[in-house]
Amino acid sequence: MHRTNLPRRFMLLGTLAGAAALASDPAPAAVPRATGQAPGFYRHRVGEIEVTALLDGNLAFPDAALPNLFRGYDPAIGSRLRTEAFDAPGGVPLAVNAFLVNTGTRLILVDAGAAAALGPTLGQIPGNLRAAGVELADIDAIVLTHLHRDHAAGLLTADGAALFPRAELLVAEAEAAYWSDPGEETRAPAPLRPFFAPARAVLAAYGNRVRRIGVETEVAPGIRTMAIPGHTPGHLGVHVASGNAQFLIWGDVVHAQSLQFARPDWSISFDSDPDLAARTRSRIFDMAATDRIVIAGSHLAFPAIGHVARRSEGYGFVPAMWRSPL
Ligand SMILES: [Zn+2]
After folding, report:
1. 29 CA from centroid of ligand 1 (Å)
2. Which domains does the chain have, with CATH numbers?
3. pLDDT reading at 26 higher than 60
């Protein structure tokens, strides 16, 4: 008995002695747990042009809302895709991102986040811009992919004034015209009507700094807007080209990364034209996969830069690996 019990008793004594030694350590290496993440900016080079992804924050589409949020949503397929994507229980995660394009002579921001319009988990663009070494007054131009609040509310201060003191605001003519038209507001489906007043507030705040552009416009050498229709009447992407490198900031082609790559036919209910949005999504996926274009998405997981790959079931997203040096 003694022989078999002794080693265990020694181990127990040893454990207790160790615990006592730790408890009496005069200088424990206690570090308070962090309460926030590292700053949300990430740089990517496109030839001679620098693009910086900027995180505004994170949201989730709640489970219970999915059947109404996505047209054609099938709970069995959705549940399987979410399991395969290792989504946390409770909802489908999405990020809200903006992108800064530095040509070397001009700083062009693409979208500006949600500020406080969609809750406390967003509104980090100004802080992340500063963390990246850029002041609000440094921005020369802002291109809006569209006028929804998660892209445009961040253009305003809490009082509704223009947050960016110098920037010209480039908005597609079709986009500005649609959200400015009271007739369209009356005709719009009820869930879309609350989007109109905030869009008009942004256009009013920037006043004569708003430049209405065609959906295919050269913003600066190598930087062109590109029609990506369906989500909103003037929804556009920003195509960046330098040397042999190509990069497409595609705005809201994808809202739910874990669902819509596999099921490009599942359009979100906020789309102005869900059928057109679904056709556009398939076309852009096909183009990005075929031409191996690096893409960046407003709602992909930060830093939201990577490739589209063909899969046996639709498409998949292959995030770019963190790269240092640039
Ligand atoms: Zn969006």
Report:
1. 44
2. 41-319 (3.60.15.10)
3. yes
